[in-house]
Specification:
The chain is mostly helical. Helix content is 86%, strand content 0%.
């Protein structure tokens, strides 16, 4: 009889321990799932911040390039065309000014550098002639349109369903591609040392993108 009582008590204790362990395991799994969801949302937020930060900087820099070109070519027959592209870039810049405020994204600290560098690139290329100015347009817009495509893929891969941001990027990408084709149609490839000059501008643009994403 005593043995039966002891056996019954042992079974009860075992069941209690099993129940406790099962609850703990379930709680642990739930906690891990919650943490995983939090980490995923944090990653999505970081991706959105990086995209808006770099695009805000990029559109600012592009607008400054056209302003530099207009300082030299504004009164030539190419002036109205360059001004039209500059106005589009200013629209892009205004949109990212809005997004950077609404989504509370810190802008890049490198804006003062892009302010000077963008204007300088536009100004110097225009002094080299309209072909060189158009070559800069082709090089910069090629890199930026590719960059926008990369961002769209990144948003899709991360499962980020921000329709406004995606539609903004798609529209601006199409505008940049239009600028690229305009540059080609207006003799960009006739610029002196077109290929090495174009590659140099592309490298500089890619470097600016890399830095603005992170700093």
């Amino acid at each position: 009889m005593n043995n039966l009582i002891k056996s019954t008590k042992f079974i009860k204790k075992t069941n209690i321990i099993r129940t406790y362990c099962t609850k703990n395991n379930n709680n642990s799994t739930t906690t891990k799932n919650i943490l995983s969801d939090i980490e995923k949302e944090k990653l999505k937020r970081e991706i959105i911040e990086r995209i808006i930060r770099v695009d805000h900087a990029g559109e600012f820099g592009a607008a400054r390039i056209y302003e530099g070109q207009l300082a030299v070519l504004g009164n030539t027959k190419e002036g109205p065309l360059i001004r039209e592209m500059a106005d589009q870039e200013k629209e892009h810049q205004a949109k990212f000014n809005q997004l950077i405020y609404e989504k509370r994204v810190r802008p890049t600290v490198l804006s003062p550098i892009w302010n000077v560098a963008g204007f300088g690139l536009g100004y110097v290329s225009a002094l080299m002639g309209k072909e060189a100015a158009m070559a800069v347009t082709v090089a910069v817009e090629t890199v930026i349109s590719d960059h926008y495509n990369d961002q769209l893929r990144q948003l899709n891969d991360a499962g980020i369903d921000d329709k406004e941001l995606k539609e903004t990027i798609k529209k601006f990408r199409d505008d940049e591609l239009e600028h690229m084709h305009i540059g080609i149609e207006h003799d960009a490839e006739l610029a002196p040392l077109y290929k090495p000059f174009s590659e140099l501008v592309k490298v500089g643009t890619k470097t600016a993108i890399w830095l603005s994403t992170r700093v």
